[in-house]
Amino acid sequence: MTRIVDSSWFYWAVGVAIGLPIGLVALTELRVALTRRNSGLARPVGLVRNYILPLAALLLLLIKATEVPAEATPVRIISTVLGFVLLILMLSGLNATLFQGAPEGSWRKRIPSIFLDVARFVVIAVGLAVIFSYIWGANVGGLFTALGITSIVLGLTLQNSVGQIISGLLLLFEQPFRLGDWVDVTSARGRVVEVNWRATHIDTGSGLHIIPNSVLAAASFANLSRPPGEHSISVKTTFSPNDPPDDVCAALTRVANALPHLRGEAVPTTVTSGSGEYTTTIPLRSPADDSATRATFLRWVWYASRRAGLRLDDVEDDFASEDRMERSMRIVAPTLRLNDVDQQALIPSLRLTRYGADEAIQTPGSVPKRMTFIVSGRVRLIARGEDGALVTVRTLEEGDFLGSSTLTREPVTGGAYALDEVTVLQIERADVEELVARKPLLLQEIGRTIEERNADVRRALEAANPS
Fold first, then answer.
1. What are 320-343's pLDDT values in tens digits?
2. Which residue range is the domain that position 67 belongs to?
3. Cβ count within 10 A of residue 406
């Protein structure tokens, strides 16, 4: 018994027998705690617990307890496996500590993945060289020398191609744009959907445009998404030089303020450069809204300029012809209880005009200055709930009218938007007052319409929000 205690292998055997279970239990608890916190260190700790600690214990038992020579093949095999697992642990630990939890915008977050792949390859190559050199006694110096000479030859032969790749990688490292950003380059304009070590993929809306990173690194381009919240577009229009500039600027700005993609509390502006040319600056939430906003603005300006009596592109509006006016009066006459004499007397004071699809005809809370009769098209009557959501009340069609509170001068509770191109006939407040003075039944009908519309709004809001 004394000889066993005095033997060196005894203490190694007892140490491994006691230390291995304790180490496994401690590493298991540590790994569970890191997993609960979603820490990136849970995987490296798992490698130590599952592979490194058992392999190290087995290696100690072979070398120290059973006194197997280090040159023996089983020892070398176990040492090689242990060294390879240590390499994996080092790579996993570096990734977890340096890059996995890197804050946005830091240099660690901006490093392209190919740089990390090359670094991993170098670490693995050096690690394997060390393992084969110290464990198996291999001469790796000649191999590194051959690789160095080969790299020099390939670098001189492919210097242009390699230079392009390096310039592209430097562009990736700088990261002047990110996935989802909108960029404007010489040959394309669109949203960045993919960036790899060789090329940048830009979705232009009409296809995928692939640009080599080396081309981007050597050229100038605009990142439309930076700084955030500062994007806007400029739309140019031309009016007759005889149109009052202040009236044109007010009309263009009014149309821009009604656009659905307008950014927050930002305010559009319109300036004139003379000779009938005007530039409207429209702040938007995202460059993705550019095309839709530009198209909607130009379409609404066409209708708004004719309603305001302005000559867009120096073209007169001849829509309100005598024939159209008479046909429109025949549609409106039953509602207003007009005979032929009343129609002929009222025609000179009427206004026939149009609204484009999705354009606002009446806004909630406004006080109408005229009654608007629908001649053709459809109009959606909406109301705004307490949470700001828009609720559809009903759809108005040919023969219906808006602005029933024109006489009472009360704010309307509902708004109205054109579902398609809508032609309307408008009657000013003074003419309506004169008309109802001669036709008391018409006044009662208008009052009943006001009550019905208010009741419709209340029912729509209650249905949208039962609570």
1. 888 888 888 888 888 888 888 878
2. 2-111
3. 22
